[in-house]
Amino acid sequence: MTLEKKLGNDDLSSYQITSRREILALLRGMRDSNQFVSIEVDGGQQGVVTSVLDVDPEEDVVVLDRAQDDAVHRRILECDDILFETLVDKIRILFFSGSAEECLHNDRPALRIPTPTSVIRLQRRQHYRIPTPLINPARCTMQIPMVGENRNTTVVVPLKNVSGGGIAILDEKGVLNPAIGTEYRDCRIDFPGGTLIVATLEIRNCMHVRLPNGKFANRLGCLFVDIPRPMLAAVQRYITRLEREQNAKTTGLG
């Protein structure tokens, strides 16, 4: 999967960093802050959260913590199109690697990739994803066809985050089709406070995640398809409200 396809953007050149010094500085920042980094393979069908353990400019490699799931770890080693994504100071950072190999770091198993030659740094508001509250969460109501029947059934799933470009939802029962490109029409997204938007959602990535209760679920990244301007404005207002509430909590005013 290309970054353009993942983000729904045909021109990312203005967000691309090719300066080796800047790239190394970003990677070292991830290492020093122990920043979580997500790894996606198979077009987002599989993924895991890791962190940067070391940046070695002399060997021209980056060392990351290995996946705890052996099957996912093996798939990462086999894959030639690995996407890495993280947030640094609320700025979305993405880069690819065409290979990964096993190594040891401080006598512990780890992953090693070549230092990326380019990195995408997205600071635009529509690409900034903000987590939605766990208490009184936003929810998305979707219609899915019943297998072998000429009717639909209703599925309600919670949102994990929201941006001007789309949402991430959590499918705990595994009832939604996670295939990249699948579209769900007339999805009703209820934001706390009485805001309702209706939009077509396109599945852009899927990650199998472990929940705090130990169970697994599909985390689906969804793109808004041709969302009307009034609906997009409502999304932006909700994002602004979330930012205000989170900033108030951070400063002790909320």
UniProtKB/TrEMBL annotation:
Record-annotated Type III secretion system flagellar brake protein YcgR PilZN domain positions:
15-121
Q: Which GO terms describe its molecular function?
A: cyclic-di-GMP binding
Q: Where in the cell is it found?
A: Bacterial flagellum basal body
Q: Which UniProt keywords apply?
A: Bacterial flagellum, c-di-GMP, Cell projection, Cilium, Flagellum, Nucleotide-binding
Q: Show where the PilZ domain sits.
A: 123-240
Q: Does the keyword section mention Transferase?
A: no
Q: What are the recorded Gene Ontology BP terms?
A: bacterial-type flagellum-dependent cell motility; regulation of bacterial-type flagellum-dependent cell motility by regulation of motor speed
State the superkingdom.
Bacteria
> What are the record's GO terms for cellular component?
bacterial-type flagellum basal body
InterPro entries, A to Z? PilZ_domain, Split_barrel_FMN-bd, T3SS_YcgR, T3SS_YcgR_PilZN
Annotated Pfam families: PilZ, PilZN
Q: Which family does it belong to?
A: Belongs to the YcgR family.
Subunit record text: Monomer. Interacts with the flagellar basal bodies.
Protein's job:
Acts as a flagellar brake, regulating swimming and swarming in a bis-(3'-5') cyclic diguanylic acid (c-di-GMP)-dependent manner. Binds 1 c-di-GMP dimer per subunit. Increasing levels of c-di-GMP lead to decreased motility.
What is the protein name for this chain? Flagellar brake protein YcgR
Which source organism?
Answer: Noviherbaspirillum humi
